[in-house]
Specification:
By secondary structure, the protein is an all-alpha fold. It folds into three domains: about 45 residues; about 45 residues; about 60 residues. It contains ten helices and no strands. The protein is elongated and about 65 Å long.
């Protein structure tokens, strides 16, 4: 069985393909460019479609980064570093991503945000009891670090549940 090769598209068909993609979910300029380049007959058509989408204000990385950052902060409860990492993966320019994250997290208490994240992830009546075990404490620390919280905020958040969290301060910063 031979793999299905997608049909190459001219300018008008590429425009319709881009509109269909964007109606499904928000994409960054980089993501859309990659998808369009794979289907375009002429590479110049990709630039034309992207510039037309920017002109009609359907495609804007700054707006995307702002809404994505807010959704990840409020919906998933992630920290700054995780959101920055995800925006970089989604091909948002670094300066645009940093500006969006800085704006979105400027009034957020990182320690309080980390505590809320931890309570939601642990889902137990007594997190302090669970975190008495050093393995669980280290696991919670790694979970906080992976999800974008600084080591300082992670340790301060864990201190609210366990006095052994001070030993985690000796962990090397990634």
């Amino acid at each position: 069985m031979t793999p299905r090769v997608p049909k190459k598209l001219d300018n008008d068909a590429l425009w319709n393909y881009a509109a269909r993609l964007l109606s499904g979910r928000a994409l960054t300029i980089g993501e859309l460019q990659k998808k369009l380049a794979a289907r375009a007959i002429l590479p110049a058509d990709v630039d034309d479609v992207l510039s037309r989408l920017k002109q009609v204000q359907v495609l804007n990385d700054r707006v995307f980064a702002d809404s994505y950052t807010t959704a990840r902060r409020d919906g998933s409860g992630f920290g700054k570093a995780r959101v920055l990492r995800e925006l970089a993966h989604r091909q948002v320019p670094r300066l645009v991503a940093e500006a969006a994250v800085t704006t979105a997290y400027q009034d957020v208490d990182e320690v309080g945000h980390a505590v809320a994240f931890l309570k939601r992830k642990l889902r137990m009546a007594d997190p302090a009891e669970h975190l008495r075990d050093p393995k669980h404490l280290q696991s919670a620390y790694r979970k906080l670090r992976y999800n974008g919280f600084s080591s300082n905020a992670a340790v301060k958040a864990l201190r609210q549940f366990s006095s052994d969290a001070d030993a985690l301060e000796d962990e090397p910063e990634e």
